[in-house]
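User: Please predict the structure of the protein below. I'd like the answer in structure-token form so I can feed it into my own downstream comparison script.

Assistant: Understood. Taking the following sequence of 556 residues as input:
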Amino acid sequence: ERQILGGLASHRRYRGLYEREARPSAQVFFCIDEREESLRRALEEVDADVETFGAAGYFGLAVNYKGIDDVYGAAFCPVVVTPQHAVRERPKAEDRELLQRRRFRRHFLGLLARNSFVSSRTLVRGWLSTTALGLLSAIPLIGNLLAPRRYAQLREWMNKAFLPEPRTELTLMRNTAQSQGAVTNLLTGFAAPEKTERVASVLGPAGLSHGFARLVTMLGHGSSSLNNPHESAHDCGACGGRQGGPNARLFAAMANRPEVRELLRERGIDIPADTWFLGGYHDTCTDEVEFYDLDGLPETHRADLGRIWDSFEKARARNAHERSRRFESCRADASPEAALRHVEERSEHLAQPRPEYGHCTNAVCVVGRRSLTRGLFLDRRAFLTSYDAGQDPEDRDLRALMAAVVPVAAGISLEYYFSFVDNDRYGCGTKLPHNVAALVGVMDGHASDLRTGLPWQMVEIHEPVRMLFVVETTPERLTKVIDASASLKRLVENRWIRIATVDPQSGRVHVRRDGGFEEFDGPVERLPVALSSAEWYGGKIEHLAMAWIQTAGGSR
């Protein structure tokens, strides 16, 4: 706690607040996830003109989402929220026949797999199919073990060749008699005022009411790995343990609607006509970055896309390099490009029990302007939530943010805390003997109770501490917010989390102790300076102290 608060106070005192001198080259909204902290920092190191923000990864959109290949819809929102709106992915009119071919071929593959499953349990066909399939199964087995990355690329190429991918769009509108109907008691799409409310709920608290870049990217996240029954624990917690790409894509489509922008202006959020929102997705296991709906991007913004794409290509390699310092199987002298290939291979390796470490480094959540942390090396330990107290005089945005962010971040923190301190009881032991049981949970081997919590491979380098929330506001304002929420008050008073504040005007730091706030009395010394993140973490695998990264600070 003293290390974090002293570092933030030092950054504020000796470096000052970051001031943007010109229009950003791009603005990128990330999830608050601490795994995105290093990618944000790497992106700012690569291009100091990029401005980054953090928001809960469902981006204010509690929806029941169904993709073109999904049988049923699923809730893409925090588990404590029940969605009231249904959003469906559908093919564009000119690609409907392509979708029919895709569905026919998927049905054919399903029948083939089903018949193979049934025939393997009969007397004659079982002997024949086992002989044939046994030989054929050696091909993917050898590929997954000896060349997992190359084999994954081959498998992806074959899937794209056999299963055509139609261009799609989302049913985000609700303005016709047909779309007013309910889908399993859910409203189809959103009306214009509803879309406006959702977009404002993200842009407003972040303090982004003006000064928009020409290109604003919403980046959801998730994780993919071949042999990992705990994969959903690596996906977006704000999306209910699912991948946040659809939410980012939906938000961008809403923010590009003319009627939404007109209503936003009435609320003081002025989005210029030349600003375009783009949805995207970041795989935290492979560090792959993907953008959606590029066919709708105006030609005038192609150069902006090219610049941010080049920046992401460099940043994701740097991010993979920083992650790989904790992987013993990656060479210490590997280049960023080699580290990127390494993490791509890990995700596809059949025998890899640690495709990624997930939230194992979580320790702190900062709710405030990026100025508080921009240029700081936070070692992938901080959830970063954008909030501007100066544009929230009545603390409405702060109440909404704390109600959404604290349960998600505190829940993740406590999940890792208890799974570490008693892994056999509160965790689920080693994942190596785990088998998936009826798609409900995991058990040890062929017979055991269902195991809860996290496996040891996900928490082995975790430092079990109660999460520290640092909020850029005054103690008086935060106390009112805490007292107004029974659930938040229980978390604070029962000391499941710790609370501190940073005054937006003076930068003074206060810590909550024994029911009240007292001023932080620790030393505020200058932080060490490094030219890049790689210079600071190079050759080290342990948790590191804070440092100021000069190239990520930007202009002042």
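That's the full token string. The radius of gyration is 24 Å.
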